[in-house]
């Protein structure tokens, strides 16, 4: 499975870099990094893009990235911003803790590291909160030229297909070997470009479904492509000993940690896309919440709606939402109303009749690990309602102000 032949390693490097030079996408962070002479500002530009691209598609990130870099072109500018401003710009991008951690790390660079970014992957991961192994490797290789590999979802897919790795690609043992491969394979003279080429290949050619194998610059080195019409899972001879025959190697038994289990079925209709193999995805937790849109005014101007701020930690930390209350499973609708009325009474300081809550409908939003349903109610209130300052921060906003606030996509649906 491993890249052990120096000639093959050299051929893969050359082919990938040549392909990248002629076929790479023009992306704003690449242009900024290429034209920025200051290495720390270049590293910041790369860092922001890598954080935004985690779990988010390129097409979605571009506008967010451009607005972010226009507002905070340097680490120092980001460090001076408020978390509220960060959340407002991040709103709709998802995985909101990413923006918060990015700003925390920027503040640490400014206050504790004299404004100087760490230069190596090891230091980046050690010193900056929220910077993991992949992000550290990307920053260090692209911005500072460190010859270190990177492993993200795209790289996992490419390497598993290139080397015929059929074991569970999410297991720690397999991931460790993939990191070893990436570090062997990375081009020493152009590590940043090579890592981007490997990721670009996975994003545009070696895609999860219907890969464009005939357009692949390294197709002649791909074990998955060689075996897609053959006898099933390719298996290495190391699982059977040095005297194993080809027939035995592809027979379906063995103990190599990078080969698939002997009992794993091979789907001939999938071919190359049998790789990589992942463990069954954990089903998201099901959750329900009652949410109320309180509305006041409207006669003398635009209606205003009450939004409250979530806690500073946990899901959607620090974001604003309509008053909401988690619901136990199987709760009857009448009981839901009573609980929500009691919750709202605390905000307004006066009794709320459960019967006054108007049921609007349900909104479903899928977080990465939660299948969330919001049971939505509305309630008109008097102009003179005052809010309890002892509770979480809250404010009345117009519809325009609501959309400009740091609110989640789920609340925009509501």
3D structure, described in words:
Keywords: 4Fe-4S, DNA damage, DNA repair, Glycosidase, Hydrolase, Iron, Iron-sulfur, Metal-binding, Mitochondrion, Nucleus. Belongs to the Nth/MutY family. The protein is α+β, with helices and mostly antiparallel strands and 414 residues long. The chain folds into 2 domains: 200 residues, Hypothetical protein, domain 2 (Endonuclease III, domain 1), CATH 1.10.340; 129 residues, Nucleoside Triphosphate Pyrophosphohydrolase, CATH 3.90.79.10. The chain is built from 17 helices and 7 strands. Strands 1, 2, 3, 4, 5, 6 and 7 form a 7-stranded mixed sheet that branches. Strand 5 and strand 6 form a beta hairpin. Helix 3 packs across helix 4, helix 3 runs antiparallel to helix 9 and helix 10 packs across helix 12. The longest helix is centred in the first third of the chain and has 18 residues. It is globular, with a radius of gyration of 26 Å. The two termini are 50 Å apart.
Which keywords apply here?
globular, Nucleoside Triphosphate Pyrophosphohydrolase, 2 domains, single chain, MIG/MutY, 414 residues, alpha+beta, 8-oxo-7,8-dihydroguanine DNA N-glycosylase activity
Topology:
Layout: H1 6-23, H2 28-35, H3 39-53, H4 58-71, H5 75-80, H6 83-90, H7 97-112, H8 121-127, H9 133-144, H10 153-163, H11 172-185, H12 191-204, H13 223-227, H14 246-249, E1 285-296, E2 304-309, E3 320-321, E4 324-327, H15 333-348, E5 358-366, E6 370-380, E7 394-397, H16 399-404, H17 409-413
Parallel strand pairs: 1-6
Antiparallel strand pairs: 1-2, 1-4, 2-3, 2-7, 5-6
